[in-house]
Amino acid sequence: MIALERDRTRTLLAIHGWAGVLLGLLLYVVIATGVVAVFADEIGDWASPIDPPAAAPFPAGLGLRIAELSRQIDPAYVDELNLYPRAGGRIEAFFHRHISVAGDAQPHAEGAVFELHPRTLEVLSRRDGIDDEVQARDASNALAAFLVDLHVSLHLPTPYGYLVTGVLGLAMMVAAVTGLLVHRHLLKELFTIRRFRDALLARRDRHVVAASWNLPFAFVLAFTGSYFSFAGSIGIPVMAMVAFGGNQTALIEAIVGTPPTENPAPAPMADLDRMLADAARRAGTAASFVSVSHYGRADAQVTVFTPPAAGELISHNLVYDGSSGAFVREKPGLGLVPSAGGALAAVMAPLHFGNFAGLLSKSVWFALGFASCYVTLTGLQLWTTRRAESPPWRAAARVVIGVGYGLPLALAATPIGYFAGRVAGVDRLEAPMLLALAAAAALTALLGTGRVPAERNASTLLRLTGAVLLSLPLLRWASGGPGWITASAHGLTTLMSMDAVLIVGAWLCWRAGRPRAAPTALATTGDAAAPLESAP
Amino acid sequence: MSAWSRGLLAGPVVFVTAATVMAGAALWLPAGPAQIDNLVLPIVLFPAIWAALFFYACLDRRLRRAWGLTLLLLLANAALIASRFVGTPAVRP
């Protein structure tokens, strides 16, 4: 039991409620899209599979292929090189140089991106330009990137999107902390769902139980999420201003680790394949990202990043001398030697993304994120329904239902825009995806403006979501993707698993969309009012 | 009136104060063995700095004291940052 004076409890309860009511709907959007974004890699593999799938993230022969490609581009771009696996296991090689863009303090990269087949290393596509530009024309990864961008910045311009999601993260943290403090009997409430004839009171108990179990996770997500949002939008620019006169590149170089002494003399690169094999042996797992600085120069440095090995939380960063191929050191993510700041920063990503133990940890994060969505939505419903005697709050209750059940429909509709755009040969797939999202939102709004009760609208939206989810495997196949027989024969397990998840999701939505009796209005009787006293 | 005052304090004033404390910490926090703690820790802990200030601003019964302490933190860190620019060219601490 947490003992707080009555007026402080009341203040905390008010903060808990208003933090949720003022920002709850946007918070719900960010959490729901975050739940989907946990499986961004798998969504990319499902939407743009490579048949047959990749055997390893970076196959043998990659070093020679990269050397060939370095001779095909403007020599000005042959300075930095990033290599990373993308949707379907494709390998992206981004040769670039750092540039400044007028009116933008953030450093940018300009160069050429090659998309390579993970088995044959054949060039599948090439895109030239500045980082934002080449990213916008990345067709194979566009669906996953669209959903991730919706989560991290709500598709608002930089840095405003990050600021908004950062504030939402702070609001979620406030809701989690106040939610913990206002519990009078925390342990008891973890296990209490009372039997009420009134559906609203039962819903209140379910909200409290789900929120109580979810508190630590909600706090971790909120803290790490607001850190990620504010680090780029406020933290780095402000720190660069205070410590480096506004030079963000200098700040990042200082934080990541001082680069080796400059030596611009040309020198052939050592065998990249051997460095990758050595890194895999040292880290106990294959590389997930490679960064080469000063490619083709005597001071070239190769940093190989690997995900955490089994039983570990933190990834490995292994540094090699680019011209000799000699192993130099294993460094922390930040700084050249271990530090408190580096250690704390290193746990932020695995705690937020839940990717430290593969599919298992991702599934747990997905489930806990889903519970956070439930808590946010039921909290909003309790708040608005409790005040439903007032017309503005009645309208707010309809909006909550519209956003709560319309968002899953809009997210499910997004791949329709993606597949349609790919079939039509659209260069930038963001537009058709936004169109699909907006169409679903408009349909939701149209349903919400009618005289139909909000609960029935929720049922309709759930059933529509089920229908759209069911159509996605068919659309994927119809737009040129492999069918189940081919996928099964070639071991495209992610694709088949995702199709199965969509079908099961469709069935669950259809079932959940069965019409039910609406909860009664609140606080209408003395009996009902008492248990709701501590409800949000 | 006091509700508005507290809202102003717990909202924009606390946010600006937290950002200023974060920036000022680059100058007073020890750099640590990797010479990065003073730059990294304030960024990572920004949500915690904000939360501490926010709850303090909401829960302190004496609103004037809450304003005073928050403004003191804001001005002390702002003065430290200003002295950095006025006294010496901005270089790494």
UniProtKB/TrEMBL annotation, chain A:
Highest rank taxon of the organism: Bacteria
Keyword Membrane: yes
Spans through the membrane: 12-40, 160-187, 208-228, 234-256, 333-353, 365-383, 395-419, 431-449, 461-478, 484-510
Alphabetical keyword list: Membrane, Transmembrane, Transmembrane helix
Name of the molecule in the record: Uncharacterized iron-regulated membrane protein
Organism name: Hydrocarboniphaga daqingensis
Automatic annotation (TrEMBL), chain B:
Keyword Membrane among record annotations: yes
Originating species: Hydrocarboniphaga daqingensis
Keywords attached to this entry: Membrane, Transmembrane, Transmembrane helix
Protein name: Uncharacterized protein
Transmembrane segments: 39-59, 66-86
